[in-house]
Specification:
Layout lengths: L16 H4 L3 H11 L6 H8 L6 H16 L2 E13 L25 H13 L4 E6 L8 H9 L5 H15 L3 E5 L5 H8 L4 E3 L24 H13 L4 E7 L5 H18 L2 E8 L16 H15 L5 E2 L19 E5 L16 H10 L3 E4 L5 H6 L6 H9 L13 H6 L1
Parallel strand pairs: 1-2, 1-8, 1-9, 2-3, 3-4, 4-5, 5-6, 6-7
Length: about 425
């Protein structure tokens, strides 16, 4: 399954978005955004609910803002995916990443397994080690507690810190950590061994946590818990990735509230380095196996509104592997990043969705008139201009891994250069 329809091609970016908008109120909101004004809640709601015939106009405006802030550069992060543990205390209605001790008796990756993946990725030119793991499994499973105790740890986050430090010490990869909700103290410990961290806000609607909702049995998906983590990352000056998961039963109005929550947090702290607009994929043997997936036009609409709300400086991503074909159309909605792409490991969260070949990603990006460049887990503006967001012990080494513009030194992974 997946977003298999070919999205419509949108008008040339040289067209005036305000003039091609069919709805006067939409035109007025676009004019405000293009003049540098912050869209209000009411204006954002109006734009996201615009008729389909106006999606072309909002995408054209989003491209204009993207080009002002990012030029023609589109980025990706060459990575390996390290699923440290798939045990999780939560049960989400759409997830197949989660396992339990009966289905996954190994419980956690060992240090040897972690290092083997990282070193294999290093040989292929990867620079990011993406640690993704279930939420605090030791709180639910005695087997997890026992496994950790045998290795001198009381929590999964403590073990994660050891493994991130191992990758830092033994390879040239940079850990990016996605361990779920964290306290400020926990995040402070992890900051010392990671380049960046992330947590998908998904949606701030408490309605999705009620009986029958996708987050009914997932306490860490409660909006307050996730917003606390987002705020803690800001207070600690952690370069942070967050975003929306669209198509899980939320309304467009609830997407607006989520985007505004991200904008507000970033206005306070300046730490949101990347916002992902991720489309839901229905998976067999889950409660949401029959739920409809958002079409490509809906993804375009949401990505374009994210750009209008967050502005020209924001880094906005749509994962290319979650659209069966035609993913390059999201460039027309004002995105400037494709996220992590692995030449080695699958997407364990969406195993049915293979990564595009980096050579194909490059060709499609260039065909759209953009320039594809590999980046580190920390975006160039944080690495070069906002060094307070990098742990002091990592600053010099991280900066030495980048070229003068803050991108990956040496350019594309070696195997991609050889095959180009």
């Amino acid at each position: 399954m997946g977003v298999s329809m070919s999205p419509p091609s949108l008008p040339d970016s040289g067209l005036d978005p305000v003039r091609i908008a069919h709805t006067p109120a939409v035109a007025a909101a676009l004019e405000r955004a293009l003049s540098g004004g912050a869209l209000s809640r009411e204006e954002t709601a109006l734009v996201i609910e615009c008729p389909d015939e106006d999606v072309a106009a909002i995408c054209a405006a989003a491209r204009m803002l993207r080009d002002r802030g990012k030029g023609r550069t589109v980025t990706f992060s060459p990575k390996v995916f390290i699923p440290l543990t798939r045990l999780c205390r939560d049960v989400c209605g759409y997830c197949t990443f989660r396992t339990d001790p009966r289905s996954d008796p190994h419980l956690y990756l060992t240090p040897e397994q972690v290092l083997a993946v990282a070193k294999a990725g290093e040989r292929l030119g990867c620079r990011e080690a993406l640690f993704t793991l279930g939420e605090r499994p030791e709180q639910r499973f005695p087997e997890a507690r026992a496994w950790l105790a045998r290795r001198g740890h009381r929590s999964t986050l403590s073990y994660l810190r050891e493994m991130a430090a191992l990758v830092l010490r033994e390879t040239a990869l940079w850990p990016h950590l996605n361990p779920g909700t964290m306290t400020r103290a926990e995040m402070g410990e992890l900051r010392e061994v990671s380049a960046s961290m992330g947590l998908m806000l998904e949606n701030v609607s408490e309605r999705l946590c009620r009986p029958g909702g996708p987050h009914e049995h997932a306490p860490s998906k409660h909006p307050r818990a996730r917003i606390r983590t987002l705020e803690a990352a800001g207070a600690l000056r952690v370069p942070f990735t967050t975003g929306l998961l669209i198509g899980i039963g939320e309304t467009r109005a609830e997407r607006v509230e989520t985007l505004l929550a991200i904008r507000d947090a970033h206005a306070r702290w300046g730490h949101v380095q990347e916002v992902i607009i991720q489309n839901f994929r229905a998976k067999p043997a889950t409660p949401m196996a029959s739920a409809p997936e958002p079409g490509a036009l809906e993804v375009q609409r949401t990505a374009a509104v994210a750009r209008l709300v967050l502005g020209p400086a924001a880094n906005i991503q749509v994962p290319p592997n979650l659209t069966a074909r035609g993913f390059e159309v999201y460039l027309e909605a004002g995105i400037n990043d494709w996220g992590g792409i692995s030449p080695l490991t699958i997407d364990y969260v969406n195993p049915e969705a293979p990564w595009p070949q980096i050579s194909m990603l490059r060709a499609q990006t260039e065909a759209a008139g953009q320039i594809l460049r590999p980046r580190l887990p920390v975006y160039p503006e944080y690495l070069l201009d906002r060094t307070e967001f990098i742990a002091p012990a990592l600053r010099d080494r991280l900066r030495s891994a980048a070229d003068p513009e803050g991108y990956v030194k040496g350019g594309f992974p070696r195997h991609e250069v050889a095959s180009a």
